[in-house]
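Practice problem: predict the structure.
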Amino acid sequence: MKRRHCAAAALTVVCALAVLSAPAQAWAAPAPPTASATRAPAGKSLAEVREEIDLLYRKAEAATDAYNLAEKQVAEQTSELDDLGRAIDEGRQKIARLKDQVGAQAREQYRNAGLPPGTQLVLSSDPRLFLYGLNQMRQSQQASDGVLAELNRTQADLELYTQDAQVNWDELEAGRVEQARAKAEINARIDEAKKLEARLEKEERARLLALEKQAQAAAQSSWLSSGALKDINREASPSGKAAVKFALAQIGKPYVWGAEGPDSYDCSGLTSQAWAAAKRPIPRTSQEQWAQLKHIAIGDMRPGDLIIYHGDATHVGMYIGDGMVVHAPRPGRNVTLTGAGSMEILGVVRPDA
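Answer:
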């Protein structure tokens, strides 16, 4: 297949990376560890340890998505509660003004022996004053009725605002509980993974990393050779180029769960901020991105599209061309480039479709 350089100046950093110029070479599988070097303590092979660690980080990533969603919902509920609080305060002030108005009308009638000025004029023997008084009486009655109707409407609105505020408060508290639960789950899974890695010797940790790279390279090579991509270097849209440029500029920054930059990111924090920089805001979590953005066939992807990974849509990376993605992998790793097919692909979405 004839190759092109990635989308001019917006992707110059991609073209500067020599490893991207020949995917087959960049993804040649590293030499496998020798049989004698693949056993970990406690009778587990390094491959089994790697799978266990991967599973723990997957669970942490799923909890991170739950945390991010709860955080978004808490922010929305807090904003709605603030709006309702202002509406309730304004409603109370308006009711106080209307009650003063009704009171003033009542006092006026009392001063006139219970009769409004218009009624007194109606009783006049002067025909002209009678007609004038009749009109005044009608206007006064309409005004009184209007004030009472407005008072009733405002009181009804105030009751509705108060009910809505209670519902929003309950949802806010539920969101906070979910945040706390997800946070505890994230920390527990990360701690488990770290403890598991910490039990390995330094040489074993190096071999573990080699096994991980070997598995990724094998998966990427298989994916590319399957013909999944019709054209690995399609032209990016203008907004796609801007999103890719932003994402590539974050390479080397650490993964931190729940982070949206500028110093660290989680996987969906990176993709959502990249598209925000391209003036096309998208949902915050990978699961929302999968659910709400337009799905694109893998063979039709172009730079800037988002590849959603795993059956539960708990990981996301941005396709940059050349069969590669930029993504924030997991705790303990930095934003980096990797083969788009090195992980289990669920599907592809296009933010600017």
